[in-house]
Amino acid sequence: MHSQRTMLIWMTLPALLFYLALLAVPLLSIFLLSFETEAGPGLDSYRQVFSDPYFLTIFLRTLGLSLLVTAIALVLGTGEALVLSRMSPSWQGIFLVVILGPLLISVIVRTLGWAILFGGNGPLSVAAQWLHLSDGPISLMYSMTGLIAALVHVSVPFVVISVWVSLQGINPDVERAGASLGANGFTIFRRLVLPRILPGILSASLVVFSLAATAFATPAIIGGRRLKVVATAIYDEFLSMLNWPLGAALAVVLLLVNVGLFSLFNRVLNRSRRRATTSLSRPEGQPT
Amino acid sequence: MTFLELNGLRKHYHSVRAVSEVSLSAERGEFISLLGPSGCGKTTTLQMIAGFVEPSSGSIWLDGQPLTTVKPQNRGLGVVFQSYALFPHMTVAENVGFGLDMRKIREPERGRRVRDVLELVQLEQHRDRLPAQLSGGQQQRVALARALVIAPPLLLLDEPLSNLDAKLRAEMQLELRRIQRSFGTTTVMVTHDQDEAMALSDRIAVMDSGRIVQLGRPQDVYERPATAFVASFLGSTNLICGQLRLSAAGMQLVVSDRVALPCPDSTGRAGETAWFSIRPEKIRLVGDGSGETGHLKGKIVMRVFCGDRWIYELDTDVGRLVLRVQNQGHPADEGRTAGLTWNLGDMISVEGGHA
Question: Which end of chain B is more exposed for a tag (fewer CB within 10 A), N or C?
Fold first, then answer.
């Protein structure tokens, strides 16, 4: 018994070392870096992060952007999953691939595609002018709208998958039972379906929020220098301003905010999951 | 007075005909079973009454009102699903109260009605449990309570007991009958279980290939099956086919060169092919000693003990016959040859068929 346990510990060692080397060490060095000043260790960088309204704007923009992306992706993704669950199995397969498509393309390629689409000479602008919706060329580049659209695009698949999985656990007769008891379509969704897919929606929102809050490539290309988010600001501090301690401090603050939201969310999620997963074992019937 | 009327209901999906033609009328308070094998259209018929499936043609009337185009949520019928379809995130009391909420029935009436119906199904002490914390039989009763609490004019049961084990099912049959009687709710039940149909129903509609082949009281359908299919689906039976011949002794059924069985008169004209059904419990073995030879001789190829009765399988000149005999302590041995006899009246002429 004892030797087996010892062996298990030994067996986890490679993974442990791997994490230590590739996650803990860099994190720790970033953490230490953030306290570096010209006159020995100090809180100068943090003071600057919290006092400079420039950084406050960037943090608030990142937060607002992530919240908006999460909200829009949830609505779109949940709707898509609901529609998907009503399709015949063969169409479901096709549309799942279509929905997951964005994840199969490299983030750079995908974002550059958006850049072409959004540009002043891009198809979107041309179409808008042709339809007389706009007098001159319009560009969504370096705009919040464009940034949100691009981030929503990559976030929706995560929501669809997560909600789709929780929809699979719902007995299709439940909706009919609701109808027979007098509930209309909206009430059936709100009182019978939504509570059951809520854990799926919440866990999707967690994933989407953290992806949006830490996204780099998309904000860098579509937001550019005009719409800096925390991730691009960190990049700039490190590589353009060469102020490594300030970049590190920004990274640490971003991480802490994320972890804080994460654990808060997790608590809500667990509470809702506890209720929703005490589900019925579904008897297999032979409908005639 | 007719309370529920199904008028020439049909349903086809593309080229597949699920229900070819179903017409039925039920009295107020009546318990009617739609009985048939898988794919006979019984569930589709029930779903058309519930409003989940739109009929391709035909009409449904309830208490003189047309129901055919009314949405399910406006029909106000009680439906119990085979899977129960309880709301897993709601407690027993919340499940039962759901239909009352939809009807905007407020406290204290809401609470009183939930309590009353839970008492009726004997689940009052489990009102705060979640469905997953209940046994199958309890879940079944919650489903029933949830359907009954809205005081529906019509109760629809889709294989309500098929997910329960045999002992519980027998108990629930009695329970279901008691509850249905005390509410007096007109009920249509779909089942493939003939015992369930016979135990519960005022009338049984035996369905096959999308239509009702026979409709009647359980004992009538059992004793006087109209077709070979009904005879073999409702209970087990022995089917004998032959040609009718009029002899000096009366009408005879010629099964083969060697066998001619006496059969009831007025079952058909001489020369016609006829099918007869004889229930296993109506056939008697006659011993060597009694001097009686019976209508047929047969060799016992197998006997099965069922506690209160023995089941014998005999090889005879008309084929394999099955007998069910009360256990009186002196079973006949396998391999023995015995005479078989029955009352002529127990030979039921049925419409022939594939069975």
Answer: N
